[in-house]
Amino acid sequence: MKTNRILALAMVCIMPAPAGAAELALNPGLWETTMTRTNPMSGDPVTEVSKECVIQKKFDPSSMLEGTEGCRLVDENLTGDRLTFSMECSLQGSRALIDGSFQTDGQTGQGDMDMKVQAGGMNMNMKMNWTAKRIGDC
Question: Are strands 122-136 and 108-119 parallel, antiparallel or unpaired?
Answer without folding.
Answer: antiparallel
